[in-house]
Write a structure and sequence with these properties.
This protein is an alpha/beta fold. It has helices at about 20-30, 45-55, 60-70, 90-100, 115-120, 135-140, 180-195, 210-215, 235-245, 260-270, 305-310, 315-320, 325-330, and strands at about 5-10, 30-35, 80-85, 105-110, 130, 145, 170-175, 200-205, 230, 245-250, 275, 290-295. The strands form 2 sheets. A 6-stranded parallel sheet has the order 2-1-3-4-5-6. A 6-stranded parallel sheet has the order 9-8-7-10-11-12, covered by helices on one side.
Length: about 350
């Protein structure tokens, strides 16, 4: 079985171009893909209401999906593929099952399911459901564990053994401001200054309104100044470029999550060192202590040894497993040639 000529209705958040990358990869394998945002709007106010008081928008949410169903009602979808699915209540999922009875409905979560009550309520309705978080898969039997992936572009610039690279940074951090990330990053910045370690960071916040709210009501962001943040998300191309010129990438996962972030796998594809607060990385088949430095989020200490040790290249089968192709292969339960 393959994806040739399969019709796929694809719902995903607009997240750093990964939705478009997945769509293009599916199309490269011969699928016909219709991509929609998994929420009726990416407006920061709408997103906030969805997160904290979704019932206020129930009419807008239902109308949004009704319009998509009406527009595509004559298409014989083989798959309905949903990433995150924050507003896919049981009622919404049932509508799609009724209107596209042939379609296999697949859910993938790259966030903790504990953040999404409606997703928990809908789990029994999906034909297959996956999560990036091993802990969630152990708590919810409907969820299969499948880590994230790296995009093909990251492998084009892996330079293990290439002495011609003129590195600009020892440590690179790119991420959204949440939880205790800024506190940890501040500690690492001080540590880096002491040891003459070059660090580049790109902190993203959705809007000035969100920044102001966090400054006023969340003490964890007290020291975060305007000069430290960006209100425009960084492009995939820029992340690849920054990774190329960096010896290592810093990963600070949400304290309530154990799953590996996308950044972890991008580092694997690019063959760069990883500095992470996620202790669970030791459980993964790509873990090599020469490649990965695990730090304490309460007392982060950077050992310069990580920058000088030779990078240990993973087996080809391991790298393939965490590629976008490997991810699609497992999610759709098909065999795609590498």
């Amino acid at each position: 079985m393959n994806l040739g000529n399969k019709n796929i209705l694809f719902f995903a958040p607009d997240f750093f171009g990964y939705d478009q990358a997945i769509k293009k990869k599916l199309e490269a394998f011969g699928s016909i893909v219709d991509l929609y945002n998994e929420r009726p709007s990416s407006n920061v106010f709408i997103k906030a209401i969805i997160r904290f008081k979704k019932e206020l928008l129930s009419f807008i949410i239902e109308r949004y999906f009704d319009q998509i169903i009406k527009k595509n009602k004559d298409k014989n979808y083989d798959y309905i593929f949903i990433i995150k699915g924050e507003v896919f209540s049981p009622k919404v999922v049932l509508k799609f099952k009724q209107n596209f009875p042939k379609a296999k409905i697949i859910l993938y979560l790259f966030d903790s399911i504990n953040n999404y009550k409606s997703t928990q309520e809908s789990l029994y309705l999906f034909d297959a459901a996956y999560t990036f978080d091993k802990t969630d898969s152990q708590s919810f039997p409907e969820l299969k564990f499948r880590p994230l992936f790296y995009m093909d572009e990251f492998t084009k610039n892996n330079v293990n053994g290439n002495e011609s690279i003129k590195y600009k940074y020892d440590i690179l951090f790119v991420g959204t401001a949440h939880s205790d990330r800024w506190i940890i990053l501040e500690k690492i910045k001080k540590e880096a200054k002491k040891q003459n370690i070059k660090i580049y960071y790109y902190i993203y916040i959705q809007s000035p309104f969100v920044y102001l709210g966090r400054k006023l009501f969340d003490k964890k962001f007290k020291g975060l100044s305007l000069k430290d943040v960006h209100f425009k998300s960084i492009s995939k191309e820029e992340i690849i470029k920054l990774t190329y010129f960096s010896k290592s990438v810093l990963d600070i996962q949400h304290p309530k999550q154990t799953g590996m972030t996308m950044r972890t796998f991008e580092v694997l594809g690019a063959e760069r060192k990883l500095i992470t607060t996620n202790q669970d990385v030791k459980q993964y088949d790509f873990y090599e202590p020469e490649n990965i430095l695990i730090i304490d989020r309460n007392n982060p200490v950077i050992s310069k040894k990580i920058f000088s040790e030779k990078y240990i290249i993973s087996e080809i089968s391991i790298n393939s497993k965490y590629s976008l192709t490997g991810w699609i292969n497992e999610i759709f339960e098909i065999k795609i040639p590498e």
